[in-house]
Specification:
63% helix; 1% strand; disordered N terminus; disordered C terminus
């Protein structure tokens, strides 16, 4: 009778759960193989809540708005705080309802260094707020783009919570790309003067040229595109199945057009960083590396097509970099070179491609060093050398970078005047705003940011706070590089964080894109799957 019916079903246990489900939540020492413990139930629930939260943030946060553009900053801040608060509270209540199983030994997981560094940033900022001349502003950060203590505390809790999770990025990544496509579509429509939702109806002509899509002004929009484009490129490079390739190429095309209408050169800086860094992530995967020139060919083709469209009436400003990029005289040769390189790499053996990583890294470092030396010489010994139209980029002055030179000089002056304790812990939120109120550098606008995230942290969060923030970025990118070797889904996200960190040298931390950066940092430092199976592409 037993032989007739065959052996017991090996696909389920006595509780009816399949090993594939249990395998997602590995057993700890002392657990029974067939027992679906409270800990496993908690892990499954936490995983589902994390997926829901990531999808909500990556899909809805870039798109949410109210009262059109006129309180877009507050709206996105409220959405981020509410969504994150609900997620963190849900995790807490789930932990209370499903506590650790008594009598079962569990491995203790350490706290990721990125979470520790973020916590220290909050602590130092708290000290800075207490000794600040304006402690009342430190909590919300109204004059600091809402990057106050409340927001920093949320960042700490998020990175800590996400670092404890094993995250399935299948749906969150798709949500990110879908949202980026919608943002890009609105950006392109607004550039050509089409406003289907009426975002710009009550804006004056000057503001209409600076605001686009559902993100805000060109700098904020550009920071978002620097996060979105590397993610789209990473998805495109590893997509293998037909449906995924269709979605990947469609996303890459739409997001490529979205980057071209960004009126901020910070976007160009982020994309240049993307182009320089991404080969370092791919030398260990020759098949994906061979596809990289095809990805750039897609981008160059979009630039070529957009160049033909620039003859149409437009309303928003274009970056001078992308204006040059879209000219057929440049876009067509770059397209041809990308396609030629794509065909050439098909014949290069995988071993030879792998050996090229070290020479490429050395060449990249040497090129960066030469650029730095050239910039120093052009601004010192060769100050009188005529540079023509490159003067605005290569010569530092008060007008450099749309008056960033003047702003940075002012910010450094503010820092020098701070007491020693505030130099360490920061002058807290609103310090630049109040310093500018005493001695304004612009007659038509108040200054509340350094237009350089690192200089801004230097003043508002102090030298110690800046070191902690740099440590957060370092540990997150390092972790992403490690995981990228076995989990291709992390390549695009690692590249996005690295590119954002570079463009941040000329941009602003604010509620539109900075929370998304923090979410991606939390994803990069999340727990690796404990399964003994070899790494497989999850998407």
């Amino acid at each position: 009778m037993q032989e007739k019916n065959g052996p017991p079903n090996q696909n389920t246990n006595i509780y009816g759960f399949s090993p594939s489900i249990e395998g997602d939540y590995p057993m700890h020492s002392g657990e029974s193989p067939g027992l679906f413990t409270l800990q496993r139930k908690y892990l499954r629930m936490a995983s589902q809540m994390t997926t829901a939260y990531l999808c909500a943030m990556l899909l809805l946060h870039p798109l949410v708005f109210s009262n059109l553009y006129f309180n877009i900053t507050e709206t996105k801040q409220v959405f981020f705080m509410c969504a994150s608060g609900l997620y963190l509270l849900a995790l807490l209540f789930a932990r209370i309802a499903l506590p650790q199983d008594s009598g079962v030994a569990h491995a203790r997981a350490g706290v990721h260094p990125a979470a520790v560094a973020m916590l220290l940033l909050f602590v130092f900022s708290l000290v800075g707020g207490l000794i600040s001349r304006y402690p009342g502003e430190a909590f919300f950060g109204e004059n600091n783009r809402y990057q106050g203590l409340l927001t920093l505390f949320c960042y700490v809790a998020l990175i800590f919570a996400l670092s404890r999770r094993e995250i399935d990025l299948k749906w969150p990544e798709r949500a990110f790309l879908i949202s980026a496509c919608v943002v890009s579509l609105f950006g392109v429509l607004h550039h050509f003067g089409m406003d289907p939702i009426g975002f710009k109806e009550n804006l004056n002509a000057g503001d209409r040229g600076r605001f686009l899509s559902t993100i805000g002004n060109a700098d904020f929009y550009g920071a978002y595109m620097v996060l979105a484009f590397p993610s789209a490129l990473g998805f495109f490079l590893r997509a293998k199945q037909r449906k995924k390739r269709i979605f990947a190429i469609s996303s890459l095309v739409v997001i490529s057009f979205g980057t071209l209408v960004a009126g901020s050169d910070s976007t160009a800086l982020g994309l240049i960083a993307t182009a320089a860094i991404i080969p370092l992530l791919l030398f260990s995967d020759s098949d994906v590396l061979r596809r990289l020139p095809l990805g750039w060919a897609v981008y160059c083709f979009c630039a070529l097509m957009f160049g033909f469209l620039t003859a149409l009436p437009s309303e928003t400003y274009l970056s001078s970099f992308f204006t040059a990029m879209c000219r057929p005289a440049l876009a067509l040769p770059l397209l041809s070179a990308s396609l030629a390189l794509w065909f050439a790499l098909k014949r290069v053996p995988s071993e030879r491609l792998a050996r090229a990583k070290r020479p490429y890294a050395f060449t990249l470092a040497a090129a960066l060093l030469l650029v730095i030396i050239a910039l120093v010489l052009l601004n010192t010994l060769l100050r009188e050398l005529p540079l023509g139209r490159w003067e605005r980029y290569l010569r530092f002055s008060e007008s450099w970078g749309t008056d960033r030179g003047r702003i940075w000089t002012f910010v450094l002056g503010v820092y020098k005047k701070l007491p020693f304790a505030q130099k360490l812990f920061g002058a807290s939120s609103g310090a630049l705003y109040h310093a500018d109120a005493v001695n304004p550098i612009f007659s038509d606008a108040g200054l509340d940011t350094a237009h350089n995230e690192y200089l801004h942290y230097f003043v508002t969060n102090g030298a110690l706070g800046l070191i902690c923030y740099l440590a957060v970025l370092f540990f997150a990118i390092r972790e992403g590089l490690r995981r990228s070797k076995g989990e291709p889904v992390y390549r695009g996200l690692t590249l996005a964080v690295a590119a954002y960190a570079i463009q941040a040298a000329v941009n602003i931390a604010q509620p539109m894109t900075t929370p998304l950066l923090i979410v991606l940092i939390g994803v990069l430092v999340s727990r690796k799957p404990e399964s003994s199976k070899p790494p497989q592409e999850s998407i």
